[in-house]
Every structure is written in structure tokens, then in C-alpha cells.
Amino acid sequence: MNIKKELIKSACNSIRLKIGGENENAKIGGTRFGGAPDVPDGFEWDYFEGRGSILDDTVKSRPLAFIAQFDLEEMAQYDTDGLLPKTGVLSFFYEPESMRWGFDPKDKGCARVHWFPDKNALHTAEFPDDLAEDYRFPMMKISAKSELSYQSFEDFALQRAKMVECWEEFESVEESLGIEEPNECSKLLGWANPIQGNMSQQCELISRGYYLGHGWDDISPRDRQESEQWANRNWTLLFQLDCIVDGNFELAFGDGGRIYFYIRREDLAAGNFDNVWLILQCS
Hints:
This protein is α+β, with helices and mostly antiparallel strands. Helix content is 19%, strand content 31%. The protein has 7 helices and 16 strands. It has helices at residues 3-10, 72-75, 153-156, 167-176, 200-207, 221-234, 265-270; strands at residues 12-22, 32-33, 38-40, 47-51, 59-63, 65-71, 89-94, 111-116, 122-124, 140-149, 186-188, 235-242, 244-246, 249-251, 258-264, 277-281. The chain has a 6-stranded antiparallel sheet with strand order 10-1-11-12-15-16. A 4-stranded antiparallel sheet has the order 2-6-7-8. A hairpin with a 7-residue loop joins strand 4 and strand 5. The two termini are 31 Å apart.
């Protein structure tokens, strides 16, 4: 196998994001991190029921925090593969108090993605009264650029037998192509930068009802084989958010972690964001 040829063949576009700095010219439907989301009339804030973290480990229903929104007309110039809808606003939410990892089918609802097709029909939402101040994130600028995205070793090796024996050769190819593992990387689309391994197969298995928090011993041989075969074909990265440190503000996901929103390719093509799956990884 020609690793370099195969790696180049699998490359695709991503939209690299830089998050930070005060957003002084916020407008309705504009791209931004934090602040209050812009929503249409009738929008109902999403809640997730689960056990909290150290601050409050009781099981209860908590409002999701607003993470970021993207003006899709603005993003279209960077979406060179034409995967996102061309109009409207795409908004991301996550419940950071319970901080689910995505190992469990019961984690469904800890993150949500909303597509509002008509930007002109939006207004700035009011936060729910029970959303803690710590999770009302400050509004920050997001700048974007197109960037070629290559598979990680974990994604590349998923359907290629005996790749574990070719790790050093893969690293050498990455070096020859100038591919470097980023210290921090937030982006839309492209291939993920995993911290703890491939995630598309995890998404496929969870969609089949498997709990993965205690290993993969209970997975049937058929589901293991099929999920390995179809994972990268069925699932793709929608949004990857790294830890954010800006002035006195810090948003961390475990120890140097990231959250990843994955979506089925057919759902992305259809503009259906109801079944996006979130995974958290950290070192």
C-alpha cells in the first residue's frame, strides 16, 4: 500500500477557526462564540437530564449552554466542498455541567445543533433563568479560513489491516506532507484531530445501541465488523471545539480536551441536524 498516495486521496477541506477577542460588532445571525443565541419565534431552549459534576452531582434537568453560531452565507466561501447549507444560521449547544463523554446512548440530548434557515427571522434569545452564570459564556469573535484536512492515523487505519505495523511509515509520510498535530484546533468539517482514537466507529456502535463506557467486549462480531467497515463512510465531523483561554475566561473539557460533534453524511446532505452525536476526548 502506498500510504502517501492514499492519505492525499482521502484529504478534504475543513474550516479552521480562531476564537477569541471581544466581538464589538455583533449582529443578529452573525458568526460568534458565546453570548446569547439568535433564534426564531417559538424556539424552546433544550434541556438535558443527567448527573452533574463536582458543583452539583444530583440527577436533574439542566439547560444546555450556548456554544457558538455560524452565519452560513459567510461560511460558504470557506466550505469549498459545499457540504453545509448555504443560508441561515447553524447553532451549537452543550450541557457542560454534566459534561457527558458520548460513551452511552443515554447521552443523547446532552448536545444539540439547530439550523435556522431564515436569518432575517431571528432575534436574540433570553437565557433561561436556571442557566448558571458560569455557563453564559462571553461573546467572542470567530475568524475562519479554509484548510486542507488529512486523516489521523486512527482514522486512516480503521479499514486497513495491519496498519499498526506501519505507524513509523505513516509518521514519515505526515512529515513529508508538512502535517503537524496542532496544539489547539477548532474547526468545522474535515477530519477530526482525535486525542483518544477513532470516533466514527464509536458513533456507529452507539447508534446501534451499545454502551462503550466499559470496553467493547459485549459487541457482536458482526456489529464490530460492520461498524468498522461503515464508520467513516457513514459519519463525518461537523464541529470540533478545543479548550478556549481568553483573558480571564477559560472553557476546558477535562484535561486538555475537545468536544466533537459528529453527523451522518446523509443527514448533513439533507440539512438534518437532529441526530448529531457529541464525543468528548481528553488526555
